[in-house]
Amino acid sequence: MDTWQPPQTAPPSEGPLLDTFGRVADDLRISVTDRCNFRCVFCMPAEGLKWLPKDEILTFEELTRLLGIFVSLGVRSIKVTGGEPTVRADLPTLVSMFREAGPELDMSMTTNGILLDRLAEPLALAGLDRVTVSCHSLMPHRFEGMTRRDALDKVFAGLRAAEEAGLTPIKINCVVIGGENQDEVVDFAAWARRFGYVVRFIEYMPLDADHAWERAKVVPSRQIVDAIGRVFPLVSEGPDHEPAASYRFADGAPGGIGVIASVTEPFCETCNRLRLTAEGQVRSCLFALEELDLREPLRSGATDGELASIIRTAVWRKWSGHRINHPDFVQPERSMSMIGG
Question: What is the pLDDT of residues 321-333, one digit of tens each?
Fold first, then answer.
């Protein structure tokens, strides 16, 4: 059996954040909270999870200091995530601090959107560039069933506020689950054309807290593209640095679609991402089984150089890719809400 072993060599002490497979990490997901006001069926149980104590969550100053180190190591884009990032108190202040730490950063946020009606403008003024809003059904009853919240109207209101605030282009993340919402993919494409959104369909991944994921419920991205293409012909946008394979509408209509085929067509060989959890753990892969701690050394007086060395080690130890399609795959103990988007 092909099992991963950490490299025996030390990471480079200079240059970009490089792993042993030649990939450069320059995109960072920063989780600012593990808390969430939704209870999505593919993420957490109805009763929620045990949230981290406040003193274990990184402060604004700690998050900003770490971001500055990541930027010095070559990170060029960040996405603010959670949990649900908008439940973190005074989020616009934190975004403003992030912008000061990285004036040239491409900075976006993934959110469920229900608090954007009051936060979109302050976030835009603080320096956020755009938002990605998670929406898994356009039917109120089905949306409530999947998120365990009757909040679709609030999501729509949040999208309108984001557009008015200039947090564009707006992307929509839709997790497609067989037997749940796969019959809506064409409706989502029509919605994208109407409002100019880019809807990204994400294959159902084993990142739920209940560990109830079923391979049979994965809808292959190729099927999604084919279903939409029969109604709205598509043109491939070609490869880019995003995990999504992107398409525009052949007739020139606004908006577009993307598919993130993490299960059926993994893109691990081109992955450029890192994750920082809300309590200061560095994860080199969404499905990683190990993390390296930054919080303890940070709070014990470590220098920026020492923290940078830990980050370099985390990247250097990155494996070749997840093993969802292998019999020895082990699902991470922590669910998506605890990892950070």
Answer: 766 665 666 666 6
Identify which has the larger pLDDT, 41 or 180. Answer: 180
The Cα–Cα gap between 177 and 195 comes to 24
- For residue 44, give both structure tokens: 């957490």
Q: What is the DSSP letter of 269?
A: G
Please state the φ and ψ torsions of residue 196, each to the nearest 5 degrees.
80, 20
* Dihedral sign for Cα atoms in the order 270, 30, 85, 319: positive
Share of the chain above pLDDT 90, in %: 73
Tell me 281's DSSP state.
E
Q: Domain residue spans in the chain?
A: 27-339
pLDDT at 291 over 60: yes
What is the DSSP code (8-state) at residue 157?
Answer: H
Helix, strand, or coil (residue 171): strand
Q: Residue 301 CB: number of other CB atoms within 10 A?
A: 7
Can you tell me the distance from the alpha carbon of 336 to that of 339, in angstroms, rounded to the nearest whole number? Answer: 5
Is residue 312 a contact partner of residue 14, using CB atoms and an 8 Å limit?
A: no
241-265 average pLDDT score: 89
Residue 2: what pLDDT? Answer: 46
Interacting residues of 288 by C-beta distance below 8 A, sequence separation 6+: 318, 319, 332
pLDDT of residue 1: 34
Q: Strands (DSSP E) along 211-301, which ranges? A: 234-236, 245-249, 256-260, 273-276, 281-283, 292-293
Give CA–CA dist 336/341, Å, rounded.
Answer: 6
Predicted TM-score (pTM) of this structure:
0.92
Token pair of 48, please?
């929620």
Query: How high is the pLDDT of residue 263?
Result: 83
d(CA 171, CA 25): 23
How far apart (Å, rounded) are the C-alpha atoms in residues 122 and 247?
A: 32
User: What whole-number distance in Å separates Cα of residue 70 and Cα of residue 79?
Assistant: 13
CATH architecture of the domain 27-339 equals Alpha-Beta Barrel (3.20)
pLDDT at 12: 87
